[in-house]
Amino acid sequence: MQTKILLDESRIPTHWYNIIPDMPGSLAPVINPRTLQPVTPDDLLPIFPMAIIEQEVSGERWIPIPDEVREIYRLWRPSPLYRARRLEQALGTPAKIYYKYEGVSPAGSHKPNSAIPQAFYNKQAGIRRLATETGAGQWGSSLALACSMFGLECTVYMVKVSCTQKPYRKSMMQLWGANVIPSPSEFTNAGRSILAHDPDSNGSLGIAISEAVEDAASRADTNYALGSVLNHVCLHQTVIGQEAKEQLALAGDYPDVVIACCGGGSNFAGTAFPFLADRAAGKNVRCLAVEPASCPTLTKGVYAFDYGDTAKMAPIAMMYTLGHDFMPPGIHAGGLRYHGESPLVSQLHHAGLIEAKSYRQTACFEAAHLFARSEGIVPAPESSHAVRAAIDEAVIAKEEGKEKTILFCLSGHGQLDMGAYDAYLSGGLEDFEYPEEMIRESLARLPKVDL
Length: 451
What we know:
Layout: E1 4-5, E2 15-17, H1 41-44, H2 50-57, E3 62-64, H3 67-73, E4 81-83, H4 85-91, E5 96-101, H5 112-124, E6 129-134, H6 138-150, E7 153-159, H7 160-165, H8 167-175, E8 179-183, H9 189-197, H10 205-217, E9 222-224, H11 231-236, H12 239-250, E10 257-261, H13 266-280, E11 286-292, H14 297-300, E12 302-307, E13 316-321, H15 343-350, E14 355-359, H16 361-375, H17 381-400, E15 405-410, H18 418-425, H19 436-443
Parallel strand pairs: 5-15, 6-7, 6-9, 7-8, 10-11, 10-15, 11-14
Antiparallel strand pairs: 1-4, 2-3, 4-5, 12-13
Helix pairs in contact: 3-5, 4-16, 5-6, 6-8, 9-10, 12-13, 16-17
Subunit structure: Tetramer of two alpha and two beta chains.
InterPro entries: Trp_synth_b-like, Trp_synth_b_CS, Trp_synth_beta, Trp_synth_beta/beta-like, TrpB-like_PALP, TrpB-like_PALP_sf
Cofactor: pyridoxal 5'-phosphate
């Protein structure tokens, strides 16, 4: 009985899968926050290289992966697919549970799948420096890694509460040569404005995005790189689902349900989009996005136009949102604290083609604890949401006495998140259920877009 299902390096995907041609209906336009008119390529050139802009709007179903990117992918791709037999035994379930493990990358998560091509395209365009934001630090460390490989400078605005909670993520970024700045900071107008209003602000991804975009827009040698949400990031992550499909075929299996954690949408998109292509072709497969109850974008947000950042500098997009000035609690799953959702994921959810579920963090850490005891891998707090949902699906299969094949993405390891596990083991982990009235208050300030 095989536990690890591996692919040779020659099987690294040669193309990224672009779901846009298979989307239900046309995409809503992205809006320039200054003109309130649809964004043009010229609007985006101050912060993105043309190759990325072209990918963002491409209608081609398959986008070639440059050889230089595939060569670096070889350091960890194809990533392993595991059959979680020990977890199945612990649950006593008839379900088969598989997990695609992205924690084998140098940065310990799925994020380098997009960081490497973004650094490559910026280097090709003659850019010398990249600015970005990060929550828990997976994206920041991934971009720092990518910049070190292509000889680029890197500045990372890290959400202040995560900077405190996850000091070794900061160390990892600095080891790869990045300049890490706790956000909100005194280095940008956006940061100074927030601190003037709330000197003790914990920060948020929306604020950190504002600082990074302002930084990039103010320097000709600097571009902005984003680790989630946008179409090109979701595109780059589809290597995950493509490999998983091939590995499951080697195992003679196919999932009934595909599960991934969902903050801005990159991990879920990368895992689920290749399977949604099968669904569009007639396959019966469910895709489940899992988010924190404290930042319930898909489950409690509204589908509307909103800014991508707190300072209203980033483009306005149609997405599920909790409001651009939503201030999330300081939960340990820092990568899932974004106020909005990928427009592609949002449209799929609005059309009823994907499901969404939220969990409190104690339930997720309980699942991660069982997983670590059964499978030996300590999940990242973000990944624990997918673990929780996979366990619940397996328990339902047991209660119904039905066989079921479950696939989830273990998006990264938690070896730099021991502070969170210390809090869980000592009973100090608190649950946060974001109040409905605070969500309503934030949503009252959505932009008025009239097209």
